[in-house]
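Attaching the record inline, Q. Sequence:
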Amino acid sequence: MAKKAVQQVAPKRLTVTLVRSPIGFNRTQGKTVEGMGLRRIRHTVELPDTPETRGMILKVRHLVTVTE
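Structure, as predicted:
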């Protein structure tokens, strides 16, 4: 029997940029920004488009901008 070729689709990525400082906001929001890998204002990272990432973005949506 011949095996079917499985086409692998590249996982979607989100580009997240920190636009406001987490200083003065809830401490857990600062930890969330840190957990996303953002270090300073205008720092950009690419993250996988997963429910976990979407939840982190939702928590700090007032501090970041997101492009797909």
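The radius of gyration is 16 Å. Residues 27-35 form the longest helix (9 residues).

More tomorrow.
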